[in-house]
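WARN no homologs supplied; continuing
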Amino acid sequence: MKPKFIRIISPFTFAAALLFDASAAYFTCLAVEKVSGEKGVNSFLFLGIMLFLDVVAVLTTRETLKNGVRFSEHSATFTALDDNNTVEYDKIESVQVQKDTKASFTKNFISRYSVIVFYLKDNTVHTIELGHTTKNCLQKIEGEFNDRIN
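OK structure emitted
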């Protein structure tokens, strides 16, 4: 099968990244107007801080959009994790996904994380927490794993 990438991003994270980028751009426009109007140390300091913030905003959005699952010929790599992020298809016996969608006032955000559970052929279990994802994204990942292990 050919390589594939499925992006893992929650709608709230995407909206927050867009809001951060838009606000950084807006305040940079204000800083440019301030520098063009009055040439003072505070104006240039404000512009310098905003240019730095623009770079941070772009890099943060880029990293957020790079999180996902990269499916290759023989394995899948979860790009949002630092270690234990690669799973080989020939070692997987079955895949199960879990996402808590029941209403509750007592659960916190971590209780709502999406989880992928790999049952391996050596009778071990490998669990990966994906964070907040949509149900559609989780079903795509499960379907892709089931297609590749069969």
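Helices lie at 11-37, 41-66, 135-149.
OK
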